[in-house]
TrEMBL record:
Compartmental location: Secreted
GO CC, any one term: extracellular region
Family: Belongs to the peptidase M4 family.
Residue ranges of coiled coil: none
Active site, per annotation: E174, H277
InterPro entries per record: Metalloprotease_M4, Peptidase_M4, Peptidase_M4/M1_CTD_sf, Peptidase_M4_C_domain, Peptidase_M4_domain
Cofactor or coenzyme needed: Zn(2+)
All residue ranges annotated as the Peptidase M4 domain in the record: 68-181
Organism placement in taxonomy: Bacteria, Pseudomonadati, Nitrospirota, Nitrospiria, Candidatus Troglogloeales
Designated name of the protein: Neutral metalloproteinase
GO biological process: proteolysis
Length: 365
């Protein structure tokens, strides 16, 4: 039996939850199965956002518009409004982290990439916290963010997950699914789906790096650092620097991400939509290589190249080769043909086993 988050874009991959459901103790198994089994219920509640749909699409002309709701451990969305744009902190960590993380993501996109919110039209950033009781995931459902509290109701020795607002790169990751939705709208399957996940990891990591003012060589390049409790042998959900090394735990299993095309996992569609959370390690590592070769703040050059490619070139069925060609071309347009930036893009993709095609080189010349 398998479970898919599409089109909910969950942060925790189904293979991790399946492993917990098979290997964990009774409390952990029950929690993992609950997280896996509610996806259909969540889809059924997407229409609950209809009353706030006009608010979502209200143009804000370059101003943040954040609203955080509390589901109060129920499943109705969006829940009770608890913090609006400009309101003081509430003292509830989940509420305030969701608010601050949405703001940091908004700031990255508007201040660096001149993008006015998720849809580039001032879309209000809606978040719901305290979704269900002991829900071990967070997701973007096409209209808003939703966060579970993890295992806070479990005995300390059984807990695997902290609250899902505690990792700012998770917030940036999920909101970037919205950016991709409004731009390339990458199909959520096989390589295009893995590229979709990778774009979210790239910009989620950039949100964290910019918040901490880290240069590429100082960043940890981890996605979901802090989500796991001390009971788990894990640094994060994924590592862009070293895919396959993020976790190795008796309950979770070992991180299966490849870093090179020679290790690409050929999976059936019913296995995580063809491995979208697994093979994303390849384009993730390509971006890491580009960013570290260029140095400095990764959002300034590597991030700009990836953003323009996502906005203007990459389309719904693009795969890794297409992404490599387009980022190479964009680097030439932004920084000049044969520039160090364009060479870094070529090198980065080559280091994960993808060479820029001759037609792309000719077009960028």
């Amino acid at each position: 039996m398998t479970h898919r988050c599409n089109p909910l874009y969950c942060i925790i991959p189904p293979h991790i939850l399946r492993n917990v459901a098979e290997r964990g103790n009774s409390n952990q198994k029950a929690s993992a199965w609950r997280a896996l089994s509610i996806s259909d219920q969540i889809r059924g509640h997407r229409q609950a956002l209809a009353p706030i749909a006009p608010l979502l699409m209200t143009p804000l002309i370059g101003a943040k518009g954040r609203s955080v709701y509390d589901a109060q451990q129920e499943d109705e969305l969006p829940g009770k409004l608890v913090r609006n744009e400009g309101d003081l902190p509430t003292g509830d960590p989940a509420v305030d982290e969701a608010y601050d993380g949405a703001g940091a993501t908004y700031d990255l996109f508007i201040e660096i990439f001149e993008r006015n919110s998720i849809d580039d039209r001032g879309m209000r950033l809606i978040s719901t916290v305290h979704f269900l009781k002991g829900y071990d995931n967070a997701f973007w459902n096409g209209q808003q963010m939703v966060y579970g509290d993890g295992d806070e109701d479990m005995p300390e020795q059984d807990r695997l997950w902290n609250r899902f607002t505690s990792s700012i790169d998770v917030i940036g990751h999920e909101l970037t699914h919205g950016v991709t939705q409004f731009e390339a709208n990458l199909a959520y399957r096989f390589q295009s789906g893995a590229l979709n996940e990778s774009m979210s990891d790239v910009f989620g990591s950039l949100v964290k790096q910019r918040t901490q003012n880290q240069t590429a060589d100082r960043a940890d390049w981890l996605i979901g650092e802090g989500l796991f409790t001390s009971n788990v042998n894990a640094a994060a959900i994924r590592s862009m620097k070293a895919p396959g090394s993020a976790y190795d735990d008796p309950v979770l299993g070992k991180d299966p991400q490849p870093a090179h095309m020679k290790d690409y996992k050929k999976l059936a569609f019913w296995e995580d939509n063809g491995g979208v959370h697994i093979n994303s390690g390849i384009p993730n590592h390509a971006f890491y290589r580009v960013a570290t070769e260029l140095g400095g703040h990764a959002w300034e050059k590597a991030g700009m190249i990836w953003y323009v490619a996502l906005r203007d070139r990459i389309r719904w069925n693009s795969g890794f080769q297409s992404a490599a060609n387009h980022t190479f071309q964009v680097a030439g347009e932004l920084f000049g043909p044969g520039s160090k930036e364009q060479q870094a893009v070529k090198n980065g993709w080559s280091q994960v086993g993808i060479n820029i095609e001759a037609k792309a080189k000719k077009a960028a010349a």
